[in-house]
Automatic annotation (TrEMBL):
Keywords: Cell membrane, Cell wall biogenesis/degradation, Lyase, Membrane, Transmembrane, Transmembrane helix. The chain crosses the membrane at residues 12-29. It is a single-pass membrane protein. Functions as a peptidoglycan terminase that cleaves nascent peptidoglycan strands endolytically to terminate their elongation. The gene is mltG. It is found in: Cell membrane. Its EC number is 4.2.2.29. It catalyses: a peptidoglycan chain = a peptidoglycan chain with N-acetyl-1,6-anhydromuramyl-[peptide] at the reducing end + a peptidoglycan chain with N-acetylglucosamine at the non-reducing end. This is Endolytic murein transglycosylase. It comes from the Bacteria. The record marks 241 as: Important for catalytic activity.
Length: 359
């Protein structure tokens, strides 16, 4: 009897030890798998970004941001790698980092002076510049090509990633009929770019300026009957017609009057954009029958998207139009004055008096 009880105790003990062994092995395997995963690069494909290190940064803050921006999987492993693999410190500056790099490679990228972003260049974008004009000017930066830039600005996958950070980019920018998805969402002014940069960094630099204006006037945007995309579209037409702020507000009032009366906007600047390639202003005025969703002579309401990149004044004019009874206007191309009329006969008189003599 005692021998039987003794054998049973041995069996129970052996079973218990086996259970502990299984738990230990599985737990160790999980820990190893977890560690192996965390040691891997953040992505399997190359994804180069510009990472800023400030004079106030420490290894802890750098590691924190690297993990937060998805450049490394573990800030802890990055810190250990830095402490183990190099005695150099990370100097302030902008660095090119590749999310597909190992911890050792990232440590080298952040301590290699040759990997720092180089000098800066100023590029000025003018009112009435189209997205392709922006891309052409940005294409002067080494390693960036205008065609690649334009392609990315209409790439649905890229636009989707941008829309997460820029709330003014709505579903409307995904319309495949648009010439460029981001047309209209760049603010024309002077920007400073690094000469060693990426399409994403340049694009976000432009959109950050738009975001700042949007956030400053968010309440005004939200008070409008027009959607955000429609506001940018209307502002682009207004800005294409005139650059004087008072005239912008008056022109805006004309377009609102015509929209409410279900009259076509009949803006020749929309024909210019529908043509997309033209040499003289007369070509825009003589092709009002062109079949295009941008052509406001052939289609009621606003075009399907902006026809240029409007200034901040044009956006304000689109949201705060002057109230009046004008339904017509014409611009004097020589003196850049704008003449308004309530009736068609008055408008025809303005055309004959102020425009025809200079055609």
């Amino acid at each position: 009897m005692k021998d039987l009880e003794k054998k049973q105790r041995y069996v129970y003990l052996a079973a218990f030890m086996m259970l502990l062994f299984i738990v230990f092995v599985r737990g160790g395997a999980r820990i190893k798998m977890s560690h192996d995963t965390l040691r891997k690069p953040a992505t399997s494909e190359s994804d180069v970004i510009v990472f800023l290190v400030t004079a106030d940064d420490t290894l802890d803050t750098i590691a924190e941001r690297l993990e937060g921006q998805g450049i490394v999987r573990s800030k802890k492993f990055f810190k250990k790698t830095m402490q183990r693999s190099t005695t150099q410190t990370i100097k302030p500056g902008n660095y090119f980092l590749d999310r597909s790099s190992t911890y050792e490679e990232l440590a080298n990228q952040l301590t290699n002076p040759e990997n720092k972003v180089g000098r800066e260049v100023d590029i000025t974008f003018l009112p009435n510049d189209w997205a392709k004009d922006f891309a052409f000017k940005i294409g002067s930066i080494p390693n960036l090509k205008a065609d690649d830039i334009l392609a990315s600005w209409s790439d649905p996958v890229y636009l989707k990633s941008l829309s997460k950070d820029y709330p003014f980019l709505t579903e409307a920018v995904f319309n495949p009929s648009l010439n460029v998805g981001l047309e209209g969402y760049f603010t024309p002014e002077t920007y400073r770019f690094f000469t060693q940069t990426t399409v994403d960094a340049v694009t976000r630099r432009l959109l950050d300026q738009t975001l700042a204006f949007y956030q400053e006037h968010k309440a005004l945007f939200e008070s409008q009957k027009l959607s955000i995309h429609e506001i940018y579209t209307l502002a682009s037409i207004i800005n294409f017609e005139t650059e004087n702020f008072d005239d912008m507000k008056r022109v805006s009032g004309v377009f609102y009057n015509r929209l409410q009366s279900e009259m076509p906007l009949q803006s020749s600047v929309s024909v210019c954009y529908a043509l997309y390639e033209y040499e003289t202003w007369q070509q825009c005025e003589s092709n009002t029958d062109i079949d295009s969703k941008f052509n406001t002579y052939q289609h009621l309401g606003l075009p399907i998207g902006p026809v240029m990149n409007p200034s901040q004044n044009a956006l304000l004019a689109a949201m705060e139009p002057e109230r009046h009874q004008y339904y017509y206007f014409v611009g004097d191309m020589k003196h850049h004055d704008v003449y308004f009329a309530e009736t068609l006969p008055e408008h025809e008189y303005n055309v004959e008096t102020y425009v025809d003599p200079y055609r």
